[in-house]
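Structure ticket #2291
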Amino acid sequence: MTVTPFGNVTVTLVAPGAGLRATSYQQAGDEGRAGFKAAFLAEGGLVLLHLPGAFTPAVGVGDRVLGAQTVAARADN
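Resolution: structure written out below.
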């Protein structure tokens, strides 16, 4: 979870099949910022990004994103 002036942002990794095969670059409680890579899912998977209402998504359900490259949301000012 990352605390922002707009509220909390959380990320949940969901793996297909029997287990999560992921490399984590951050631990629970670490600060996240734009451009940080949080994890790599070797066989793909689902990433649930929970944003406060002050954010507008820049991607949609089913879009493919690249860690540390794709802008997922922008804060409304």
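Closing remark: The mean pLDDT is 81.
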